Amino acid sequence: MKSTRSTANKRRKNQPLEEVTIGGHTVFIYNSPSRKNGKEYPGYTLAWTANESRQRKFYSNLETARTEAKAKAKQLGGGAAHLTNLSIHQVSEYQAAMKALRVYPAANLIQVVNEWMTCMDRLKGAGSLLAASESYVSALAKIQRPDISVSDLVVEFLEAKKRGGLSERYTTECRLVLKKFKDAFRCNIAGVTTSDLQAYIDRLKLGLRSKNNHRQTLVALFSHARRRGYLDRDKKTEAEHLEAGKAPPLAIKFYRPQDAVRMIANSEGLGRLAVALGAFAGLRSAEMMRLEWKDIGATHITIGADKAKTSQRRLVPILPPLANVINSMDRAEGQIFGYSKPSHFSRFLLGTIEAAGMDSIDNGLRHSFCTYRLASVQSAAQVALEAGNSPKILFSNYRELATPKDASIWFTPKTATKISKLVRLAAA
Question: Are 279 and 296 part of one and the same domain?
Answer without folding.
Answer: yes
